[in-house]
Amino acid sequence: MSIMSYNGGAIIAMAGKDCVAIASDRRLGIQLQTVSTDFQKVFRLSPKIYVGLAGLASDVQTLKNLLEFRMGLYKLKEEREMSPAVLSNMLSHLLYEKRFGPYFAEPIVAGLDDKNQPFLSTMDLIGANVCEKDFVVTGTCSGNLFGMCESLYRPDQSPEELFETLAQALLAAVDRDAMSGWGGVVHIITKDGVTTKELKGRQD
Fold first, then answer.
1. Secondary structure (3-state) at 5
2. How does it assemble (predicted)?
3. How large is the average pLDDT for residues 108-116?
4. Model confidence at 115, in pLDDT bands (50, 70, 90)?
5. Which of 39, 43, 44, 162 is 20 to 30 A from 64 via CA?
6. 3-199 in CATH: which number?
7. Where are the domains positioned within the chain?
8. How much is the pLDDT for 202?
9. What pLDDT is stored for residue 204 in this prediction?
């Protein structure tokens, strides 16, 4: 079994009209044994930027602490908030620095830029960065998530429509994957603030 699927997980982010949403499942497992059902994989790094980290749980928490530290240094030095594009590049460099002994985590960056336009990017464990206009996925059931997103995604959705699309895609995908699931959490980011909703899924 790959070390990337040792703890399981599924993360998805999708862009709408002047809004962006990111969602993850809640399961933490050791291979097929479930250990926890409320493990956090999506983290708020600034009022308009969230990062999802899928992969080995210990590296997820290490990377989250490192990102918070680097963002704090940037804010002290520059006296402004980091933009999602800058964060994405910084995270890419951070991962590539450790390419010979990498962090086993595949991040997703989702947020709104200075003009409140959606920004989505994802990368592999050594920081190969790709930006998308519609949706990005990562985790053990990324194939299922891609299929659901390609079926359900429509451009320029409102925050309410975006939540419905994202929730249906996540729940349908994790139901077909033994390594992820146990409900989910969705964060919808708009220029007015962030709405967080919890999803109840199959408890098996």
1. helix
2. Component of the proteasome complex.
3. 95
4. very high
5. 162
6. 3.60.20.10
7. 3-199
8. 85
9. 75
Amino acid at 157: Q
CB contact at 8 A, 116 and 18: yes
C-alpha span between 169 and 53 (Å, rounded) = 18
DSSP codes of every residue in 70-125: HHHHHHHHHSSPPPHHHHHHHHHHHHHHTTTS--SEEEEEEEE-TTS-EEEEEE-T
CA distances from 103 to 6, 71, 125 (A): 14, 18, 6
Q: Rounded to whole angstroms, what are the CA distances from 126 to 36, 96, 99?
A: 28, 5, 5
Q: Cα–Cα–Cα angle for 150, 200, 144, nearest 5°?
A: 25
d(CA 105, CA 12): 14
Q: Phi/psi of residue 198, each to 5°? A: -100, 145
Q: In degrees rounded to 5, what are phi and psi of residue 18?
A: 55, 30
Please tell me the distance from the alpha carbon of residue 8 to that of residue 26, in angstroms, as a whole number. Answer: 10
Is residue 180 a contact partner of residue 10, using CB atoms and an 8 Å limit?
yes
- CA–CA gap between residue 40 and residue 28 (Å, rounded): 9
Contacts 24+ apart (CB under 8 A), 159-164: 159/16, 159/19, 159/21, 159/188, 159/190, 159/195, 161/16, 162/14, 162/16, 162/19, 162/20, 162/21, 162/188, 163/21, 163/188, 163/195, 163/197
